[in-house]
Amino acid sequence: MDADVLFASAASPSPHSAGQVLLTLSEITLIDGLTSALAVEECRRNLNQKLPDALQTFDLLVQRTLSVVPAPSESEVYRMAERADWKDVPHLVTAVQQQYRFLVTYNTAD
Question: pTM here?
Answer without folding.
Answer: 0.90
